[in-house]
Each structure stands twice: as structure tokens, then as C-alpha cells.
Amino acid sequence: KTSYWTGSNRQSLVSVSTMAQPNHRYGGHRDLEAVIDMDQPEMPTAKGGSRFSFTGGLEFTSLTYTVVKKQRGVGGEWEKKDVDLLHEITGYAPKGCVTAVMGPSGAGKSTFLDALAGRISSLDGRVALDGVEMSPSVIKRSSAYVMQDDRLFPMLTVYETLLFAADFRLGSAVSPSDKKLRVDNLIEQLGLTTSRNTYIGDEGTRGVSGGERRRVSIGVDIIHGPALLFLDEPTSGLDSTSAHSVIEKVHDIACAGSTVVLTIHQPSSRILQLLDHLIILARGQLMYSGGPKEVTAHLGRMGRKVPKGENSIEHLLDVIQEYDQSEFGVNALAEFCLTGLKPRKLAAEGISTVSSIPPTPVGPGGEDFDHSLRSQHSKSPWSGAQFTPSRRPRKDQSGKSQNPPRYGPEIVMGTPTPLSSISVYTVNEADYLSPAQRASATGAPGVGINALGHRGKFANSYAAEVWVLMRRNFTNIWRTPELFLSRLMVLTVMGFLMATMFIKPKDNTQGITNRLSFFIFTVCVFFFSSNDAVPAFIQERFIFIRETSHNAYRASAYVVAGVITYLPFLLLQSAAYALITWWAIGLHGQFVYFLVMLYASLLSTNSFVVFISSIVPNFILGYAAVIAFTALFFLFCGYFVDSHSIPQGWKWMNTVSTMKYPYEGLLMNEFGGTRNFSSNPPLDGNAILENLTISVVKDRKWRMVLYLLGWAVFYRVLFYLVLRFASKNKRK
């Protein structure tokens, strides 16, 4: 017989027999004081000949999440009150199993999932994986979180979506051929072979089905073989067949060695057969934790009998709702889970109070206490203890059973102990191998902390991240050219209109007015033409949040890749307008400067629009904000009121107006010098600039380009700061 320590303070010991296979070490709860000794001379076996045991997983202890809410007091005044969205939740999610978090609406299922995934900064409690306590940053690196909404690029195929995910998550350590091989295997595993080259699609483009789309979302997050997989309502919005297919694939992922935790609202009977472990919540408190088959026994110990033909889990949810609507509340059921104190019976008509399990013997606390293994009164603490209760009565040397009545087999099998998953999990030799040994034995990458611990915070170098993002951006632009082509078409058409309207202005006062009108209208066209870029980032925001929540790439790499991607397209748009208007109108100065200033104008306005789109919640407010600010920039650019005549309190608006710099720069390029633009009255270029209170210094026009590029950089930096610190899917 071999003994292993299971408590972090080494005060607890589990002794199990090692007749058939070597044992495994687990991390246990700090408060474990009981010594459980269950010798098994004859090891129980499953059909395959393996004994049942537990080989680690995710443990959580005393998880509490408190928020401050405003509520009306007795006198009708608003008062701040601390409210626990999660309250002292302790339990575990076994490795290699699917753990489902269930409960009525408002139970705290999504909040609990966020707590386990490290998405709550002010969480109290402890989360450990395979006995090792994990910080939120470590959880992010070793887990995957599939959101309820499928946020994918609609014009990428299934294969391209998963391949880009492999590039982000696997890094340069894995060769391109190995990445493609892993993607091919994943597509086959998820049942997406027939949809391999189908677009994801959206409302305007026909693509994959809802179930296939959900499986792609799962594949994006598991491409790197995470030790933990969290899914928020993976069956939401799917029909019964698609929902079952999704959970079936999730079950296969769990069987490969991952710890899977998902929230689910109303699973069908077929889906229930795929769930290995249940965690039922209500009002942020734990109502039940154990296997689906043990729910009936749990209800029996409460004094409730499941009606014939009714699902035991649904009946438990009904009981929870009944207590929630009663004067006792769900606290009574939470107390029963924690201490074994049976809840008060409800005197409601039609509710059965006949127990299907014989009552437990009277103990120190009287008849209202449950003395099963999970109860504190049986000296086996509820939270995180690693022990394996025998499925057979313990025998002495004479072969007679020595188990007390309260440890009868029906109670052991019916009690949701921290190891109730023993009824669904079969141990094999691979459970005792290290990730490296498992990889060499099976050829598959090992999962777990050790498998991912060698990686840095990001899988790729900075340059590699930028390159992958650029490739994806170019692919999306090539598949959705509407934004680029529409802007190019607008500038091309406006260039022809301007060229024909202001063609060859004469050298008189009317000609000077026409030139001024052309330049101010050109500046307005270039700034307003970028407003259609408002929805661009708003549509990508949730994809960015999902990808960066697990450190797929850096926020700065996303910003740099976006700038580089649009540089050639903005240059083409500027060149098209400049080539059409320059010679048709007969402009003066340097053509290169004219082109560079138009290019810088597009860069600055694009940066401004992208920044605005990052701080507004939807594109409607985005359009309103961009139009309002553009109108203010137009008002203070110096065309209506020159910069020296603007009231002192508003001069700062002239400085921040990005329209000021292209307007003054283009006029300097056109009128700079001593060329006569009017003979009656005689006016040369410098005189016109002086009348407009614009500098006549020869090289100052290039400063305007630098100022404009400086504003472009400034808005990109603000955009990065918003992405870095304000675009996080994390609760406070």
C-alpha cells in the first residue's frame, strides 16, 4: 500500500491500494484534516477491466464575487449595497470530462464561468489546475474561452479561419506544414470536412450553418491544445440536431485530455448523456455538484422523490425554483449542499416529501443532518478533497463487511462527492504519464500546465504577428473590396467634377476665388470620404477582444498591421484624385507636394475615424461623432475666419483642427512666390497669402505635412491605448 500527500499543508493523507496500477498525485484543499483509508483487496473494475479513479482537473475554493449595486432603501432613497453574484462556491471540474454549469436564469452561470477563466479582477477565492494554484494570467495562457456569440470574419473560409488561428496560437516553433496538418486533423475531428472551403458567411453572404459556425468557433480556440476549455452557452440558438453535434464534439475534446467547462440552459436528453459532471447554481450559490446519475439520490436525501417519467435534473431545477419563491429561499438548499442540513419542507400541494433513499441514521445533529461522504459531519470536507470512495463495502480480515450503514453503496454512489465523476471516468496508463511521455507515446501534443508552461506570453515574435495580421487584412480587403472601391469611386468621380467645374481658372479675382474654393472643397472631400470607415473596427472589435483575451497577438501589432495594410490603398486613392485634377485645372507649385499632402490628409483622417470607432459602442454614434467633429474642424480650419481673427478662447480649436494643415499647406504650394494671379488689381501669390494671414516662408509648407502626420500618429497612439487598456473582456 502506497500513501500520497494530497493537502498543500501536508496535513492530510489519502491511502489507496495499488493492486492494479500506480497512483497519481493530486493537490487538495488546505483545510483537509481527515485521513481516509479505504483498502480495496479486490479492485472494482469496469467492463474494460480498468478501475475507476480521478486524475486531476480544475479545483475552485470559496469563489466569491461581490459588486456594489444601488437599491432603494426603506425611505425610498438610493443606497449602495454589496451584493454577492457568487458566494462561497467550492468544487471541481474533473479532467477528461465535460462539466456543465446549469441553473435558472440569473443563477450566475456566465459569471461563474468568467471567474474560472480569470476574467474577474476582484474575485476572492482560489483556482487550481491539477493541484497547482493558477493566477488569471496563467489561466489565460493555458485555456480557451468560446463566447456565446460567434465572432468570425465572414469572408474567410473554414480552413483559412483555422489556419490563421494556428498561425497566431502555435507560433513559429511549429512549421507551416505541421500547422496545416493540425488544421486538417481538427477539421476532420470537428466534422467540418464538407465545409472546408465554405465561407463563414453573415447576413449578406451565404455561408456555413449555425452548428458548423459554432464548431468553427470552438476550433479556433482549441487549435493550440489548451488544458482548459470554457464555453458560454455553446448550444444557444441552435436546433436540437446541431446542438447535439456541437456537444458531441466537445465531449470528444474532453476525452482527449482537456478539462471542459460549459454553461447550458436546457439540455435535451441526448445532450445529458454526454455530460459527465454537473454544477447547478442558483442566486450565485452552489445547489449541487456531482454526476447526472446521482441527482436522484441527492433529491432523495432532501426528502424529494422524482415523479415517474420526469427527468431528475429538471425536477431539481423545479425544486430550486420552488424554494426560491418561498420564504426559505435557496439558502436552505445551499446549506444542505455544504453541511448536510436538510432544508425545511414546503407545505405546497402536489409536492412529494417521500424519500426514495432510506433516512440516514441519527447523529450528533439529529435527524435533519445528512451523514454522507460529502457532509462535513462525516469528517470528509466538501471542498476539493482528493479521495476515492470504494464502490464495495470494506471488509475485515474475516471477510465481513465493516462499513457503517451510512456508508452503504447506494449512499456512496448517490452522493455528489468531489469525486462523483468516478462513475463515468475510466483510468488508463496514459493518465499517469507526463505530457512529454504522453506525446511520445501517442504522437499527440500533451495538454496541461506543463505542456504550455514553456511558452512565453505570446507565441509569435512581434514581426511575425504583424505579418500574419497583414495577410489576414489583405485577404479580407480582397474578398470585401466595397469599402476601398467605394472610396476610390467617390474620389475619382469628385475629381472629374472638380476638374470640369474649375478648369483653367483665369488670372483675376474670380480665378483666385475659384482656386480657393477648389482647395477647401478638396480638403472637405478627403475628410468626409473617410467616414465610411467607421463600422470597420466596430465590426472587428469583438474578434479583437476574443483573440487578445488569450494573448494571440499584441494590441500594438494589430495597430501597426492596420496602418501598413491601408498605406497602398490610401496612396492609390490620393494619386487618382491628384492625377485627374492637377493638369486639368492648371495648378501651380509642386505636384509631389500636392500628392503628399493629399496622402497625409487621408492618413490623418483615417486615424481619427478609427480612433472614434474604438470608443463608441455602435456605428450610429460613431457616424454622429465623426460628422460632428469634422464639422468643427471645418469651421476652425481658417477658411471662414482666419487663424489670427479667431477669438482667443477658441484658438485651440484651430490648432487641433486637422483640416487647417492641408488647407494652408495647399495654398502655400499654389500661391507661394511672386507669380501674378490677378492684373486688376495686381496681386501676386505672396500678397494673396498675406491677405489670408498665411505664412509666406518658402519651406513652411513642408512643416504642415509633418504636423498632419504628427496628428495621424497621435490618433493611432490613442487608438492603441484604447485597445490596450479599455477593450478587455474582463469584469472589474
From TrEMBL:
One of its GO terms (molecular function) is ATP hydrolysis activity. The chain crosses the membrane at residues 484-503, 515-538, 558-585, 591-612, 619-641, 704-723. One of its GO terms (biological process) is response to symbiotic fungus. Residues 58-308 form the ABC transporter domain. InterPro entries: AAA+_ATPase, ABC2_TM, ABC_transporter-like_ATP-bd, ABC_transporter-like_CS, ABCG_dom, ABCG_transporters, P-loop_NTPase. Residues 378-389 have a biased composition (Polar residues). Keywords: ATP-binding, Cell membrane, Glycoprotein, Hydrolase, Membrane, Nucleotide-binding, Translocase, Transmembrane, Transmembrane helix, Transport. It is a multi-pass membrane protein. The keyword Transmembrane helix applies. It comes from the Eukaryota. Coiled coil: none annotated. It is found in: Cell membrane. Residues 354-413 are annotated as: Disordered. Gene3D superfamilies: P-loop containing nucleotide triphosphate hydrolases. Its main location: membrane. One of its GO terms (cellular component) is plasma membrane. It holds the Pfam family ABC2_membrane_7. Belongs to the ABC transporter superfamily. ABCG family. Stunted arbuscule (STR) subfamily. Heterodimerizes with STR; the resulting transporter is located in the peri-arbuscular membrane. This is ABC transporter G family member STR2. The lineage of its organism: Eukaryota, Viridiplantae, Streptophyta, Embryophyta, Tracheophyta.
